[in-house]
Design brief:
four-stranded mixed beta sheet, about 425 residues, 20 strands, 12 helices, ten-stranded mixed beta sheet, alpha/beta
Amino acid sequence: MNTGKVDVLLGLQWGDEGKGKVVDVLTPRYDVVARFQGGPNAGHTLEFEGQKYVLRSIPSGIFQGGKVNIIGNGVVLAPDLFMGEAKDLEKSGHPLKERLHISKKAHLIMPTHRILDRAYEAAKGKDKVGTTGKGIGPTYTDKVSRNGLRVGDILSDFENKYAADKERHMKMLAALGWTDFEGFEETEKLWMEGIDYMKEFKFVDSEIEVNHLLRENKHILCEGAQGTMLDVDFGSYPFVTSSNTICAGACTGLGIGPNKVGNVYGIMKAYCTRVGSGPFPTELFDETGKTIRDLGHEYGAVTGRERRCGWIDLVQLRYSVMVNGVTELIMMKSDVLDSFDTIKACVAYELPDGSETKDFPYEIDNVKPIYKEFPGWRKDMTKCKSQDEFPQAFRDYVAFLEDYLETRIGIISVGPDREQTIVL
């Protein structure tokens, strides 16, 4: 941990790597946890003390007493969903209003953004992206086209600003021929209640707050949502989210200079998953893929959707390590592979012309994975308390991953509970 610098924690695959649990494990070291991008389409599931919590917009440091939690300007926020999430947490005894600060520059997801999301997806037909329908894309589109509604707008002339944006969206929907507005009035009413509820929280210029905290030598952890392969610039475009999920997104999503970034923790699973449409070179369509899904409980925390499962893709991971400047790796769900006789890892791609590459190409929907096989460890690792208890076959697998990715693995998770986290 570097004094006067922020550490960044992010996912290296297609999201769902288990960031929430790791943030919760790491937060005791930090004074501040700040979320820098994304919206309520991604859920962080945390389990401890017999309770399960799903966080969508609120930083995972909220469970640690006395921490400052910041929702940064790079986040898009749905007031109604935020209100539901926050009230659930308050019921469980966490004093949110004391701990949570919201950037005035964060953009608001309007009810009409969700309808636009559905309309755009329907218009794409079989080429649809597979969004969660939460209005994330249309909100970022409004942001980039300089039409967005921001948290700070709640403080002045909000009704007129909202009405103007809503009217513009309705014209867009009419042009798309969209007629399904079922439940809109109820949603809008709840949304407005969410706006009133948000006024009870502290709105801040988060870029100024974060930099003040750095000058006071506070330790700050920046938390991303989704994963590197969903980054709008570097992911498997167009099957991506609408924000920068990579480390650079922490700079733009919180107002931090690049020279203020310290450690970059990259989270990966011991295998690979993906939700929604888009290319996935190591995807398994057989019984092995189904077994991984069942053992890993690979269903969306927010949507409940089945995740597509496959072997670990080291070509993709090495690319993610590079674009993020990862300084330490964290491997999740190692225990899911406990019962396999053979473990596979993709170490290169065969391109359509028959050549091989270890560099991540522009298009990956027509590559074939080239695998290296490892003997399985065939031991229940969920009971392991230290790395000394790891079976030799697993240690060999970890050593190979570190060598291939040229990056140290610092933490290994062997189960969902925060106690099942082994620091190497």
